[in-house]
TrEMBL record:
<dbReference type="Pfam" id="PF00069">
    <property type="entry name" value="Pkinase"/>
</dbReference>
<keyword id="KW-1003">Cell membrane</keyword>
<keyword id="KW-0067">ATP-binding</keyword>
<keyword id="KW-0808">Transferase</keyword>
<dbReference type="GO" id="GO:0005886">
    <property type="term" value="C:plasma membrane"/>
</dbReference>
<dbReference type="GO" id="GO:0045088">
    <property type="term" value="P:regulation of innate immune response"/>
</dbReference>
<feature type="region of interest" description="Disordered">
    <location>
        <begin position="386"/>
        <end position="449"/>
    </location>
</feature>
<dbReference type="GO" id="GO:0004674">
    <property type="term" value="F:protein serine/threonine kinase activity"/>
</dbReference>
<feature type="binding site">
    <location>
        <position position="130"/>
    </location>
    <ligand>
        <name>ATP</name>
    </ligand>
</feature>
<feature type="compositionally biased region" description="Low complexity">
    <location>
        <begin position="393"/>
        <end position="403"/>
    </location>
</feature>
<keyword id="KW-0472">Membrane</keyword>
<dbReference type="InterPro" id="IPR000719">
    <property type="entry name" value="Prot_kinase_dom"/>
</dbReference>
<keyword id="KW-0597">Phosphoprotein</keyword>
<dbReference type="GO" id="GO:0045087">
    <property type="term" value="P:innate immune response"/>
</dbReference>
<feature type="compositionally biased region" description="Basic and acidic residues">
    <location>
        <begin position="410"/>
        <end position="423"/>
    </location>
</feature>
<keyword id="KW-0449">Lipoprotein</keyword>
<keyword id="KW-0418">Kinase</keyword>
Length: 449
């Protein structure tokens, strides 16, 4: 299945391309295009270039730009079959919200453009405004894809799109503001003096990202392949809840008897699945591999690609692969900044899940739903469990089982440990036996390439 059509501004009036919606009971509708233009991928610049002075703001547009703006808005509305809930903003409104895109409002910058913090004048809502670089990597096609995807897909672990602007040649996206920035800011680039993420926050972030992927893979119809999962695209709210952002490279997954969708190789080096890099064949398991890289970053505190390290350690997955084969060496993978403050059993389980996701053979990688099951117990800290157990004990009869000094009964502790072990063991057993399973997957694509 191909992805959404591309709008290219031109003085000539472009032909309309029909896009329909597939809707099934109990599932989220997704716009389905009929033809994909040829997009030549370009190498990404550094993920964190030094901020430059913002461009001068032009608030006047020509008649040609005005017509282009109307055509873009019409195409967005037509592609979403009038189901687009995102607001349409003028460039002047967003310039006012960001104080004319002042440097003091700049909160991030990447290959696609700059992100500013702003406040909408009409509602007072604090938002994040992404101004796409007109000469950058994200063109009209990616802009249209992101508007459609985030307008039709809604989940607590996906960033919420508030609206967009297509005035003249300006392309801007307005999101809910995520006060803690990206996972990269707290894991790989935090300033001196900032406390590093503890183990349980890392596992909760991993679980949130996995749940976002699970929604895209299992709930959307047809399924959506995210294709650009990385630490800088995982945003955090004030409670460290993870939300996936930046859907410009998202692509509709295979349906029916198809095992994959063919696509030009796009994404971020170090996160892309090896079979996708070799063949351009994209499956849901491609996202699972990328998730494994992010999970390994959370465990080790290392970048997927780090050219400042010795040559044998520059590629995170290549460096970790020998350790995966020897469980006794798993502690070598733990981030030194954790200072040993992590549960040994939890570390072993997290590394085992990462190793399954990073398997060279796509058919052996678990479904993302299995990953969610395996991680669901790893983000629960003892303090949280103690509070829940103490609350239950206080409301139970006095004949309840004796508790230890932490307020948790021996039976509760044993039961929780058994549930954790069983969930992870089931996922591990599934991964080790799935290559021999000839049954069809739920989407007809996840079992094998």
């Amino acid at each position: 299945m191909s992805c959404f059509s591309c709008f290219q501004p031109s003085k000539k009036k472009s032909a309309k391309r029909s896009i329909s919606l597939i809707r099934r009971p109990g599932q989220t509708p997704v716009a389905v295009p009929r033809k994909e233009p040829n997009i030549v991928p370009q190498p990404r610049p550094s993920e964190n270039p030094k901020p430059k002075s913002p461009p001068k703001i032009k608030t006047t547009t020509t008649n040609s730009n005005t017509n282009n703006n109307k055509d873009t808005n019409k195409e967005v509305a037509a592609s979403g079959n009038n189901n687009i809930g995102a607001q349409t903003f003028t460039f002047r409104e967003l310039a006012t919200a960001t104080k004319n895109f002042r440097q003091e409002c700049l909160v991030g910058e990447g290959g696609f453009g700059r992100v500013y913090k702003g406040r909408l004048e009409k509602t007072g809502q604090v938002v994040a405004v992404k101004q796409l670089d007109r000469n950058g990597l994200q063109g009209n096609r990616e802009f249209l894809v992101e508007v459609l995807m985030l307008s039709l897909l809604h989940h607590q672990n996906l960033v919420n799109l508030i609206g967009y602007c297509a005035d003249g040649d300006q392309r801007l996206l307005v999101y809910e503001y995520m006060p803690l920035g990206s996972l990269e800011d707290h894991l790989l680039e935090f300033p001196p003096g900032q406390k590093p993420l503890d183990w349980y926050k890392r596992m909760r972030i991993a679980l949130g990202a996995a749940k976002g992927l699970e929604y895209l893979h299992d709930k959307a119809n047809p399924p959506v392949i995210y294709r650009d999962l990385k630490s800088s695209n995982i945003l955090l709210d004030k409670s460290f809840n993870a939300k996936l952002s930046d859907f410009g490279l998202a692509k509709l997954g295979p349906v029916g008897d198809k095992t994959h969708v063919s696509s030009r190789v796009m994404g971020t080096y170090g996160y892309c699945a090896p079979e996708y890099q070799r063949t351009g064949q994209l499956t849901l398991k491609s996202d699972v591999y990328s998730f494994g890289v992010v999970l390994l970053e959370l465990i080790t505190g290392r970048r997927a690609i780090d050219t400042t390290k010795p040559s044998t350690e520059q590629n995170l997955v290549t460096w970790a692969n020998p350790v995966f084969k020897t469980p006794q060496r798993y502690p070598e993978l733990a981030d030194p900044l954790l200072r040993g403050e992590y549960p040994v059993r939890g570390l072993h389980q997290a590394v085992a899940v990462a190793a399954m996701c990073l398997n060279e053979e796509p058919s052996v990688r678990p479904l993302i739903s299995d990953v969610v099951t395996a991680l669901s117990f790893l983000g629960t800290s003892p303090d949280t469990a103690n509070v829940a157990t103490a609350h239950t004990s206080s409301s139970s009869p006095s004949s309840s089982p004796p508790s230890d000094q932490n307020g948790r009964s021996q039976q509760d502790e044993e039961r929780l440990l058994q549930e954790r072990q069983r969930a992870v063991q089931e996922a591990i057993e599934w991964g080790s036996t799935s290559r021999h399973n000839n049954g069809k997957s739920r989407f007809g694509s996840a079992s094998s390439l």
